[in-house]
Amino acid sequence: ESSQQALFPYFAQF
Amino acid sequence: MFEAQMAQAALLKQIIESIRELITEATFEVSGTGMMLQAMDSSHVSLVALNLRSDGFQLFRADRPFSMGMNLNHMAKMLKCAGKDDTLTMRADEANDLVTFLFESPGNERLAEFELKLMDITSENLGIPDAEYSATVSMPSAEFQRIVKDLGSIGDTVEITVTKDDVRFAASGDIGNATIKCRQLLDTEKPEDRTLIEMVEPVNLTFALRYLINFSKATSLAPSVTIKLSTEMPVVVEYKLSDIGYVRFYLAPKIED
Fold first, then answer.
1. Does residue B68 carry a pLDDT above 90?
2. Which of B44, B53, B190, B221 gets the most CB atoms within 10 Å of its CB?
3. How many CB atoms lie under 10 A from the CB of residue B91?
4. Are B38 and B244 spatial neighbours (Cβ–Cβ below 8 Å)?
């Protein structure tokens, strides 16, 4: 089963 | 003071229609270079980035940068009152918390004025790196919409595989499975009918179809769509708005547990 990632790990929050 | 004028209201009407289901509230950042918007959906899995350059407007004036927080459904309600061929003017000054929409009929016999209350929206702004992508696929936007909708009737997720010869969309579900393969097609009547595959290295990624189907609401904005992929990175689905900018959708991948 694959789990949905969130965007945060990929884009830096500023 | 901010004032921007579009020759036809249709563009902004269609843009808001194509993003308002994904994000209900967003902040338009206005500056001398134009209007930008960046917002994530409520589950923080997808993001919309809209960029409308000032030189794409009939008239654009922003004395200083400022933000306009709007409820996109309320904005859509007002834009629905504009004729698609009406000239659309937006006006706001930092002082009061309203943005005025003026819709002028082509014959100038009718002028409608709507004032939308602005909101304070606190939203995390994300830094989106201007990365190089392992694979870039351009194809007719109607074709992409058909693929994601067709596969959406088979399963919840789509596995996208790009090799140098083709891009493959595969889905499976309770009733069975489906694979749609698109090959490069360059010699077409119109350039926007081309399917172009640029592959630096092969990619294979899985995404939730319901978001891609939602993104494809923007199909009416552009005849072709560009899909950018890199292993274990969010996919970018970009609709270029001729002469003024783009609407970009980002979706985080699904990772095997």
1. yes
2. B221
3. 17
4. no
In this predicted complex, what is the ipTM?
0.91
Q: Do B256 and A2 touch (CB under 8 A)?
A: yes
Contact between residue B15 and residue B37 where contact means Cβ atoms under 8 Å apart: no
**CB-based contact (8 Å) between B45 and chain A?**
yes
Q: CA B256 to CA B173: how far, in whole Å?
A: 17
Residue of B184, B236, B231, B173 whose CA lies nearest to B206: B231
B252/A7 touch (CB, cutoff 8 Å), yes or no: yes
In angstroms, rounded to a whole number, what is the distance separating the alpha carbons of residues B13 and B19?
10
Q: How far is B257 from B245, CA to CA, in rounded Å?
A: 38
Contact indicator for B40, B90 with CB cutoff of 8 Å: no
Q: Which residues contact B47 (CB under 8 A, 6 or more apart)?
A: A7, A11, B38, B39, B40, B41, B126, B128, B234, B249, B250
Mean pLDDT of B122-148: 92
> Does residue A14 carry a pLDDT above 70?
no
Cβ B45–A4 below 8 Å, yes or no? yes
> What is the per-residue pLDDT across B83-108, written as a single tens digit (0 to 9) for each?
999 999 999 987 779 999 999 999 99
Burial of A9 (0-12, 13-18, 19+ CB in 10 A): exposed
Average pLDDT, chain B: 96
| Alpha carbon of A10: minimum distance to chain B alpha carbons (Å) | 7
